[in-house]
Amino acid sequence: MSSTLITGIGSLVSNDPDLGSGPLGLLADAAVVVEQGRIAWVGPAAAAPDATDQVFDAAGRAVIPGFVDSHSHLVFAGDRTAEFNARMSGRAYTAGGIRTTVAATRAATDAELDANVARYVREALRQGTTVIECKSGYGLTVEDEARALRIAARHTDEVTYLGAHVVAPEFADDPAGYVDLVTGPMLDACAPHARWVDVFCERGAFDGDQARAVLRAGAERGLTPRIHANQLTEGPGVQLGVELGAASADHCTHLTDADVAALADAADTTVATLLPGAEFSTRARYPDARRLLDAGATVALSTDCNPGSSFTSSVPFCIAVAVREMGMTPDEALWSATAGGAAALRRTDVGRVAVGARADLVLLDAPSHVHLAYRPGVPLVAAVWAAGVRAV
């Protein structure tokens, strides 16, 4: 049984208050032992076990859990540079741009789509993301949605069926018919390849009744609900997600007091996942993370990596924006991007550095995790271990 000792850690974020100080469970002068892809020991470097096969010296730098990106859209083809350029020149963002990517994705081969997903997963890994969720939603036919999920499943266990991203162009005059397709033949083809079901409950996409039908149908097939909610306007999405026991309500930009209260009351079941890359890339109002945190909601931070409204795979970038623009402290932002993301995926084996957890670790070329917000845009990830294997 091979083991690795990572020692000389100047500051370790464990996300386990029993191991260290504060909600981040911070330990100074720490060490970690990894065996068979799991954390076998955590504690002071001076007390670390001697019997290890490999030793890695962190040389006083910080170690954090791998980022858990619980919201991304990586199965796509094509490019929307012109749309972004136009938007930055004054055109407003709407949900309709998704159809541009749908056309390109349908025309792409399986090999092209697979290569794209692999590229973005590697890109995210280099920036410290060790768990990433991936949605379909750019095919919008039975065949194209099913193949998107098959391709996503080659790269992650966290696969989400999002046939209800927007109404397919062929059904522009028959949205009810498209909901029937999404909850019928498309669901039949897609459910075996997914863990989650999602819907874009928003103006220009699906209303509350349509979203409820999609999520209930998915749940009946064993898929756990998630929901795109309240991104562009106030609406029924957040409270519908809470009502149906969704693992997360994502975006949460335009919230009423009742929405905030609902998320706070459901803090143990429904995570408010905030996606600041979308607001950055659309010049929209940022979510008010402070309001949610002060109310007692559980908050996650994710990239929403997609070609139209948030073309970033960088969780460190999202942390910096959340601290600067959304009222989060550096500690809260890091927790939300690690343990918060794990909660949004209902995972207890990732997002923390504790005995028994998966050995997903990120070494920062910095003395503290605070540098993720303090030095925005700087490539601080010096090494990444995914399930105990050095990957970067």
TrEMBL record:
Q: Which sites bind Fe(3+)? A: 71, 73, 228, 304
Catalyses: 4-imidazolone-5-propanoate + H2O = N-formimidoyl-L-glutamate
Look up the EC number in the record and give it: 3.5.2.7
What InterPro entries would the database entry show? Answer: Amidohydro-rel, HutI, Metal-dep_hydrolase_composite, Metal_Hydrolase
- Family note: Belongs to the metallo-dependent hydrolases superfamily. HutI family.
Function of the molecule = Catalyzes the hydrolytic cleavage of the carbon-nitrogen bond in imidazolone-5-propanoate to yield N-formimidoyl-L-glutamate. It is the third step in the universal histidine degradation pathway.
Primary location: cytoplasm
State the UniProt keywords alphabetically.
Cytoplasm, Histidine metabolism, Hydrolase, Iron, Metal-binding, Zinc
Q: In which pathway does it act?
A: Amino-acid degradation; L-histidine degradation into L-glutamate; N-formimidoyl-L-glutamate from L-histidine: step 3/3
Q: Which residues bind Zn(2+) per the record? A: 71, 73, 228, 304
| Cofactor(s) this protein cannot do without | Zn(2+); Fe(3+)
Which residues are listed for N-formimidoyl-L-glutamate binding in this entry?
138, 306, 308
Q: What class of enzyme is it?
A: hydrolase
By which gene is this protein encoded?
hutI
> What organism is listed for this UniProt entry?
Streptacidiphilus alkalitolerans
**Superkingdom of the organism of origin:** Bacteria
The record's HAMAP family line, in alphabetical order, gives: HutI
Subcellular compartments: Cytoplasm
Positions bound to 4-imidazolone-5-propanoate: 80, 138, 165, 231, 309
* Entry GO MF terms: imidazolonepropionase activity
In this chain the Amidohydrolase-related domain maps to 63-366
Q: What is this protein called?
A: Imidazolonepropionase
